[in-house]
Amino acid sequence: xxxxKSGVNLLFLREEELRQGIExxxxxxxxxxxxxxxILSDYGFGRAHHRVIxxxxxxxxxxxxxxxxxxxxxxxxxxxxxxxxxxxxxxxxTPGLRDRRQRLLQLAPKGVELERQLTEKQRARIARAYxxxxxxxxxxxxxxxxxxxxxxxxxxxxxxxxxxxxRGQG
Amino acid sequence: xxxxKSGVNLLFLREEELRQGIExxxxxxxxxxxxxxxILSDYGFGRAHHRVIxxxxxxxxxxxxxxxxxxxxxxxxxxxxxxxxxxxxxxxxTPGLRDRRQRLLQLAPKGVELERQLTEKQRARIARAYxxxxxxxxxxxxxxxxxxxxxxxxxxxxxxxxxxxxRGQG
DNA sequence: CATATATGTCAACATGACTGACATAAAATC
DNA sequence: GATTTTATGTCAGTCATGTTGACATATATG
Lengths: 170, 170
Fold this sequence. Notes:
The structure is a homodimer. Chain A is mainly α.
């Protein structure tokens, strides 16, 4: 069993393993976005609005160009959803202090509420997966996911503070 | 340091950890799809074509309804890209043996080649991330990702055969 | 003053999702 | 054999979200 076929088997396992990786990403992302999408459609919004609301909520005072770099979409694509969100009172903008050309964006109360509602679903899904998989698995998950992300964006994820279980062991 | 604030800190860490989880998924998926997207545009295809080509390649003889269930899109959305792929000779169809209403789909040589080209990019990205993270991390990654996926689709991922390093230890 | 930067806006277009209705052929069932 | 269900196709219309390219404005910087 481990003599002639083992080389072939290893190649097969590797191919199978990598394909499963591709599919894990596909299905996880598909299911991860489905719940928020359903909520958004009640507001006449789509996934693009979600992304804007999320990152503005995450980074209050973010500028338009920072948002563009994060989302990697064009000015026009962003402009459409952003101006909608501002017009409908989900996002407010104030001129930059040092650079008054900038529009510093933040969530209005309405936006905070929608963001909470949307993120709650995703947070719950992740929390459940983390809980069921255990702390060690979560570290592995983070490691692999970071490796999948383009190098420039990895700095968005500072090394995690040690949790209670590990404190003092490292 | 661990007296009054620890409860608050734990909550904060948890919130931060979950938000990072959300963002890991967002950025990983964004970067994971960017390379294939670029190739596809040379053919006048989009991400929807990729998904069809991928799953037909992965499951030769898949039927239209199985594909619909996998992709969770409507008949019409699938029909558009699928008929394009058939018309341009990337996918062939043969009637089902037991049920002749079915169209059993498989990749034509042209489709095999395009699939290879597209998947290669993603495979390489995953292989690198797996290699850099190590076998243990990969297991954790799999565990968490599976937990993120809706229960019904988890059966697509049979338990992984033990690799050489672990064989005989379990 | 000249230039670069941050942002906005307009027009035009492509992709890929949706709904709803209707059609056909084959299978399954009564 | 007649009816119903299933697998699939197709048409028409709509929407969300991405694209490009060109041009405008206000502000910052050299």
